[in-house]
Design goal:
Blueprint (H helix, E strand, L loop, with lengths): L1 E2 L9 H6 L11 H17 L6 E5 L2 H12 L5 E6 L2 H12 L3 E6 L8 H10 L5 E5 L1 E2 L4 E2 L2 H10 L3 E5 L11 H4 L3 E5 L10 E6 L1 H8 L18 H4 L8 H16 L3 H18 L14 E5 L6 H12 L1 E2 L11 E5 L7 H27 L4
Parallel strand pairs: 1-12, 3-4, 3-5, 5-8, 8-9
Antiparallel strand pairs: 2-10, 6-7, 9-10, 11-13
The chain binds pyridoxal-5'-phosphate.
Length: 371
């Protein structure tokens, strides 16, 4: 089965192989602390930041929760920028840790409107931090973090950016964007297996955590507990060393790939054009991510029928969507290892066959309603 979903993505052989290497005790072997630190420095380099990075043992969701757990104190006002499923979802994490989320919700078909946010910030004050999603994967929505995050910082609002499905396919410049906590995952455009989350954390974010009046209400999701791992030679829990070997190999692959963003952009554009030429309707009206394309399920067709025929006839797995978009959209993940011309072309030709066949079936049902 060819995996063309918006994460987890295909994993290259060199990443799979290093996960079977002999391991040491990552708590006690001092060499591992250097290995971990170098891997973190590589993440910071690739995300264009002087801020330190941390690798946490847990899926992408852990990073989002850790950011909210570590920043939120009971009663804190948090601005949740919502133009997609993950965008809105941040409000749940804020509430779980006693915060008071203010949802700035806008049309899910459109990217966040920086001018509207600027107007809003003139009127509403007192937010400790804001959350936003770089690429909201269920709709393939890309938000302009380079424009919006500095705006929030102007008002003294810390920023938490979920780029789990954005980074390594769309440009992320943490320092230029003044992002306080950037959340990444292993299994999207980086194309390592699922299981790790990575964060870059600014000095402002650390200061805010250190200035808390109440303790962070989590052990596993406490970012501060990673702050001095290198000096103390102590991790809050045992690091998943084989996962980190795989992550390092995937980071090397990304770093050595000189055309990584250009290729993602070309293949995304090719996908959107092909989909439109098939007569399908893109879900987004603006904010197209280079990593995933979502189109509407045509009238009278079922998302499940499209996905099933893609799998059964063509051996290709693509994805539906979920939450409020469940059943409405079909998504192709052209990110990471999936983002190669041969696989994207094969997927699009298969999609053409599937849509044409299902349309014919539909037309014949209309002519012979009893059959
Ligand atoms: C995949 C993803 C996550 C992490 O979700 P997991 O279920 O842990 O993989 C977070 N945010 C976005 C936007 C994602 O696409």
């Amino acid at each position: 089965m060819k995996i063309m979903t918006p994460g987890p993505t295909q994993v290259r052989e060199n990443v799979r192989m290093v996960r079977s290497l002999e391991t040491t005790n990552p708590d006690l072997d001092l060499a591992f602390y250097d290995y971990y630190k170098e891997t973190c420095e590589q993440i910071s380099r690739l995300m264009h930041t002087k801020n330190p990075s941390y690798i946490l043992g847990g899926e992408g969701i852990l990073g989002l929760e850790a950011a909210c757990a570590s920043l939120t104190e009971p009663g804190d006002r948090v601005l949740v920028l919502d133009n997609g499923v993950f965008g809105k979802g941040f409000a749940d994490f804020v509430r779980l840790y006693g915060g008071d989320p203010y949802l700035f919700s806008s049309d899910y078909h459109e990217e966040l409107d920086a001018d509207a946010i600027a107007l809003f910030l003139e009127q509403e004050h007192g937010f400790k931090y804001a959350t936003l999603v770089h690429c909201d994967t269920p709709s393939g929505m890309l938000n302009d973090i380079l424009r919006i995050c500095p705006l929030l910082k102007q008002y003294g609002i810390l920023t938490v950016v979920d780029s789990v499905a954005g980074a390594f396919g769309n440009e992320v410049k943490v320092d230029e964007s003044q992002i306080d906590i950037l959340c990444l995952g292993s299994q999207k455009a980086l194309s390592a297996p699922a299981g790790l989350t990575m964060l870059t954390v600014s000095p402002d974010a650390i200061r805010s955590m250190e200035a808390r009046k109440t303790p962070i209400a989590s052990f596993y999701a406490n970012i501060l507990s990673f702050n001095t791992y290198y000096e103390d030679k102590w991790f809050p829990y045992t690091m998943p060393i084989s996962d980190i070997y795989g992550l390092k190999a995937a980071l090397d692959n990304a770093e050595q790939d000189t055309d990584i963003l250009g290729r993602h952009q070309r293949l995304a554009e090719m996908t959107r054009n092909f989909v439109k030429d098939l007569g399908l309707e893109l879900y987004n009206h603006s904010g197209y991510s280079n990593t995933v394309t979502a189109f509407k399920v045509p009238e009278g067709m079922k998302a499940s029928a499209i996905l099933e025929r893609m799998r059964m006839v063509h051996g290709i797995m693509i994805a539906g969507s979920f939450d409020v978009l469940a059943g409405e959209l079909v998504r192709i993940g052209h990110m990471g290892e999936n983002a190669n011309e041969a696989d994207v072309q094969e997927t699009l030709l298969a999609l053409k066959e599937v849509i044409e066949t299902l349309s014919e079936n539909q037309a014949s049902r209309l002519h012979f309603p009893d059959k």
